[in-house]
Amino acid sequence: MSADIESNFGMKSGSVTITAFDDESIETGVRKSEEIAKLSPDNKEFMPPPEKQRGYLEVKEYFEDTNNLSPQNISERISYPINKAVENDLSSAGYFENSSGFQALGNTNDLSVYHKNTYAGFSSTMRLKDGKGSSKIDRSYADINLLNVKKFSDRVVDKAILSRNPEKHDAGKYVTILDNAAVCDLINNLSFYMNKRSADEGKEFFFR
């Protein structure tokens, strides 16, 4: 676990990160953040800490079944796509990961929040032995019961087989249908550039 401590004096801010949570370590972190803040120049874009409000929606992102996953549970799931690849003479690579955690925030404006979450992610790439075709799938859920590894594995195997005997096309305009994983990768990369700061600084090609 780690904690970020931020202190503000007017438009000056200073922050430190600590990984020990005894009283002395916390106090040292607070004093250090205050020291850094006093030495820092004013931040013209300073935003004051948010105040306590009502009406926050509770997001359910924690599931006991995901939290209780064991190495045996994971190995049973991940063995299926490996066996399917062998059965269909495909090369395969992938991963399965899970985690449980929480985030907490508090400030001097009486705002206090706490959120628990779980995560289970599965990714698999199937490739033809001749290297001329492949398929990929990438899925993640907070609830492990929604992560149907067998269904997703069957899909990525079928698509890899369909990619056999590719045909060459001349340069031109074609209708392209992207898979979910491709769309997610594309949107994720674009989202880092579609923001006002990048546009104001002339770094955003969408607004040129």
Task: Describe the protein in words.
There is one protein chain. The chain has three domains: 37 residues, no CATH class; 104 residues, no CATH class; 37 residues, no CATH class. The chain contains six helices and five strands; from the N terminus they run ββαααβββααα. The strands form two sheets. A three-stranded antiparallel β-sheet has the order 3-4-5. Strands 1-2 form a two-stranded antiparallel ribbon. A hairpin with a 5-residue loop joins strand 4 and strand 5. The chain is of the alpha+beta class and 208 residues long.
Q: Helix and strand layout, with pairings?
A:
Elements lengths: L2 E7 L2 E7 L4 H17 L24 H4 L3 H17 L2 E17 L5 E17 L5 E8 L7 H14 L17 H12 L4 H5 L8
Helix pairs in contact: 3-4
Query: How much helical structure, as a percent, in the residues?
Result: 25-40%
Structural class: alpha+beta
Query: Which radius of gyration do the C-alpha atoms yield?
Result: 24 Å
Query: What is the β-strand count?
Result: 5
Query: What is the count of DSSP helices, taking H or I runs of 4+ residues?
Result: 6
The strands making up the biggest β-sheet line up spatially as 3-4-5
Helix and strand element order? EEHHHEEEHHH
Distance between the termini: 42 Å
> Strand-residue fraction?
25-35%
Please tell me the total number of domains: 3
Quick structural summary:
This protein has 208 residues and is an alpha+beta fold.
